[in-house]
Amino acid sequence: MKNIKTILFDLDGTLLPMDMEKFTNIYFREMGIHFHGVFDPKVLMSNVWESTKVMVKNTELRTNEDVFWEDFSVRLGDHSDHIKENFMEYYETGFQKVKASTTQSEAMINAVKHLKEQGYEVVVATNPMFPRPAIHDRIRWAGFEPEEFKYITSFEDNHYCKPQLAYYEEILKVLKRKPEECMMVGNNAQEDIIAGKLGIKTWLVTDCLIDDGKEKMESDYTGTAKEFYEFIKNM
């Protein structure tokens, strides 16, 4: 572990413990309310999911934002910026209610603080499917400030999504780090632990574990947020 210089943290379910089902339900309920009279809620939700799938599968060097909006605008038959403006308004209003599905992890707050005190770079390596303001809000809900992190992946800046290895390769390029200089900490047994295929050390956090069972990947370390905190105190 002496070569590790940078710790990459997933956000939802890792730095920010959450009930994912509750999060999703509130997210789409409030979106439907926000766009009431403009779009049918079921059609809207379906199109958001479909455009998100297109974004996740994209392998071209195009930002997630561009890929999503190109597909989403065609689905809704509107190519104007008006839809984007309405969505940004939603993230400032109704989206804030999804905070009720989240809690804070004292262990993760302490872990990040300790790592920074010890001189490690800390990065938020969240799946960049949300606009930057919505990511920053969730970072604050977790008990942090965005400025505490060296780098934060986002919808606007990044070109790939998890579980693509290109997502992690882009982070390494931005940070000018070698895989062996990094550790990925996340709660998704596929999307986060796949970073290990590049030579990045991995820690699977089990508090809000997500494991679809489709592809078995072995993490270098596995444990709760508390166990992770105890581990890094001895790094």
Description:
This protein is α/β, with parallel strands linked by helices. It folds into 2 domains: 6-18 and 102-232, HAD superfamily/HAD-like (Rossmann fold, 3-Layer(aba) Sandwich), CATH 3.40.50; 21-99. Helices cover 41% and strands 10% of the residues. It has 8 helices and 6 strands; from the N terminus they run βαααααβαβαβββα. The protein has helices spanning 20-34, 41-57, 64-76, 82-92, 106-117, 132-141, 165-175, 225-232; strands at residues 6-9, 121-124, 151-152, 182-186, 201-205, 221-223. Strands 3-2-1-4-5-6 form a 6-stranded parallel β-sheet, covered by helices on one side. α1 (20-34) packs across α2, α2 runs antiparallel to α3 and α5 (106-117) runs parallel beside α8. The longest helix is centred in the first third of the chain and has 17 residues, at 41-57. The N and C termini lie close together (7 Å).
CATH-defined architecture of the largest domain: 3-Layer(aba) Sandwich
Quantity of strands, as a count: 6
Structural class, judged by helices and strands? alpha/beta
Number of helices: 8
Keywords:
single chain, 235 residues, alpha/beta, Rossmann fold, 6-stranded parallel beta sheet
Short description:
This protein has helices at residues 20-34, 41-57, 64-76, 82-92, 106-117, 132-141, 165-175, 225-232, and strands at residues 6-9, 121-124, 151-152, 182-186, 201-205, 221-223. With 235 residues, it is of the alpha/beta class.
Which secondary structure elements does this structure contain, and how are they paired or packed?
Elements lengths: L5 E4 L10 H15 L6 H17 L6 H13 L5 H11 L13 H12 L3 E4 L7 H10 L9 E2 L12 H11 L6 E5 L14 E5 L15 E3 L1 H8 L3
Parallel strand pairs: 1-2, 1-4, 2-3, 4-5, 5-6
Helix pairs in contact: 1-2, 2-3, 5-8
